[in-house]
Amino acid sequence: MFKRRSIMRQGIADRSRCGFLLEALVALLIFSFGVLAMVGLHARAVRHLNEAQYRANAAELVHGTLAAMHATDLATLASRFDRSTGGSGWLALLDQAKRLPGVNDTQNVPTLEIGDGPTAGSRQVSLDVFWQTPDSDQIHRYAATAVFGAN
Predict the structure, then answer these.
(1) In the prediction, which pLDDT does 15 show?
(2) Could you tell me which residues are beta bridge partners of residue 122?
(3) How far apart are CA 70 and CA 147, in angstroms?
(4) CB–CB of 101/133 below 8 Å?
(5) Domain segments of the chain: what residues?
(6) Nearest-angstrom CA–CA distance, 64 and 44
(7) Longest Cα pair distance anywhere in the chain, in angstroms?
(8) Residue 13 has pLDDT above 60, yes or no
(9) What gap in Å lies between CA 65 and CA 104, rounded to an integer?
(10) From the centroid of its chain, how far is CA 98?
(11) Sign of the CA dihedral with 132 first, then 98, 105, and 108 last
(12) Exposure winner among 34, 87, 103, 112, fewest CB in 10 A?
């Protein structure tokens, strides 16, 4: 009789240990999913932070170039920033644009258009800067338009 009670107690103890191990495994599984979700969230946050940095760099480049164009005489504006003649302003823009990912001499080159403004003594400028992150096929763009007039 003593052996029977001992065997019954041992069976109950084995079942409770098995239940405890099962609970521990389920808790470990839930914890693992939580850790994986946090890692994915962190990776997504880093990617968005990098994209925001590239957008800020492109905006700084565009607005800096427009400021340099504003300081230039309207008579020499087109020749200085013309792509076909390789003006000094265009070369400076291209050099700075190459700091963005995916930009080189032939790919994602900025576009700069200088045309007549709304008045006879003014010029309208359109500037687009492009970039492409290494992990994406999408080409991003930052564009601005300005009108420069003689005072």
Answers:
(1) 63
(2) 149
(3) 9
(4) yes
(5) 2-149
(6) 30
(7) 114
(8) no
(9) 18
(10) 15
(11) positive
(12) 34
> What are φ and ψ of residue 99, in 5° steps?
-75, -20
Q: Using an 8 Å Cβ cutoff, are 65 and 127 in contact? A: yes
104/24 Cα distance (integer angstroms): 55
Q: Above pLDDT 70, what percent of the chain?
A: 87
| H helix or E strand, kind and range, residue 112 | strand 111-116
Report the chain's terminal Cα–Cα distance, integer Å: 112
Closest Cα to residue 60, out of 144, 147, 146? 144
User: Who contacts 115 (Cβ-Cβ below 8 Å, separation ≥6)?
Assistant: 123, 124, 125, 126
Q: Are 107 and 115 in contact (CB under 8 A)?
A: no
Alpha-helical runs (H) found in the chain: 2-70, 74-81, 88-97
Structure token digits, residue 76: 């020499």
Closest C-alpha among 130, 128, 146, 129 to residue 138: 130
Per-residue pLDDT at 6 exceeds 70: no
Confidence label for 105 from pLDDT (cuts 50, 70 and 90): confident
Tokens representing residue 122 in the block: 């003014």
